[in-house]
Amino acid sequence: MALLITAKCINCDMCEPECPNQAISMGAEIYEIDPNRCTECVGHYDIPTCQKVCPIDNTILGDPAYQESQDQLWEKFVLLHHANQL
Alpha carbon of 28 to those of 25, 31, 58: distances in Å? Predict the structure, then answer.
């Protein structure tokens, strides 16, 4: 599933530059994750880097509106980063 940044976000700017899919951007009040670009770092890392670098526990969680399997996340990664090779 794509990840979601909750209202606990303190806008510390740690997550945005770490996202390998460029899925994180500043929203109206806090950072937001584009579910069409978020792969939970599948294809890049074992643990989502945004969760790893966030200084506030449980701020970045799975988005229940976007349930995806590991295979679906992998397919999204391939389309984002290797579409020209398909």
Answer: 10, 8, 21
